Amino acid sequence: MVRLKSEAVREAILASAATEISANGYLDTTIGRIAKGAGIAPSNVYVYFESKLQIYFTIYEPWFREQFVLLERVVKRQSSRQEKVGALVRGILRDIADDKTGYTAALMEALAAVKPKDKYQPDLLTWAEEKIEDMVVRSVGGYHHGHPTLKAFAHLMMLTFDGSALRAKILRANAQEDKTMEAVEAMLMQIIMVPEGDLADRKAVSAG
Questions:
Q1: Domain covering 53-196: architecture
Q2: pLDDT one-digit tens code per residue, 60-99
């Protein structure tokens, strides 16, 4: 028998899941608790979502994309190339990786628990790396989309994002962690920053 879907019930499921995940993390959030918060039977959750992972990404993806939109605005407001790259690195590795909603911490749990049956697709990761490339192209100059160094930088940024989010989840902030993050930021900036002389040369070649 086909069950009719209700947008109100779907939103209730997502609202309940968001509250549970933010408070208790991904692993301790169960379909039963989500259903209880939504005022429905656990079996009814599966009418709307295939798995807890799908519920989680339905919540996390729009939030994550919005953080990048906000970050783009912050980066754009910076005056120098170095300040722009610094804002980009800090925004991803500090603000988004160590967010106060608990969503990114839950991401680490979710990815660690992924099984083949969950049908995980890295579409959001691919999107994030493309957005990083785009911000660098517009902020630093001297690169084009698809440039090997640029692609490597974006990939390294997201690998570091995973590590930062995991450390933020299991370790409390301390002076040593701050120093480590500063060192990581300096390393990433050194990789991507095109020296002013090289940048001028590239512009000259492009003009010619």
A1: Orthogonal Bundle (1.10)
A2: 999 999 999 999 999 999 999 889 988 999 999 989 998 8
